[in-house]
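Appendix B, record 7
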Amino acid sequence: MKKIFLFSMIIGLSFSCTKKVSEENKTPKQQESKPVVVGGDSDAHGCKASAGYTWSILKKECVRLFEAGTKLAHAEDGKTYSTVAYVIFDANQAELFLDTQKEPILLDRKSEGDSWTKGDYQLIPWKGYVLKKAGKIIYTGE
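Structure tokens (predicted):
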């Protein structure tokens, strides 16, 4: 009688363990996330934004604006802002990078000493540079 009781306990426990193991196998596994590689991003021109590179239309290459560009500080309304603009110069053209624009703005000038213009933007070489939009000063810099 003891043997039969012991044998039935072993069989009962083995079935209950099998059921638990099969239920664990049914639970969906979490998908493995791929690690993000720093510098692994590239735009349409191959510039890596995470490394600070932006495509320059004038230079026809990836540039770091903070290295290759001229920095202009926000000057609107006499308040202090944390935004900046960058300008890259090439002969009688200037490429303007603003944080409010997705694409850079190409400005042209007629001759040496004139200001660069495009639409209502005007970049004036005066004590460094002054950028105006619709006649209002928005950025200044050296």
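Remarks on this record: The chain is about 20% helix and 30% strand. The beta strands are 54-56, 61-63, 70-74, 84-90, 93-97, 105-108, 116-118, 121-124, 129-133, 136-141.
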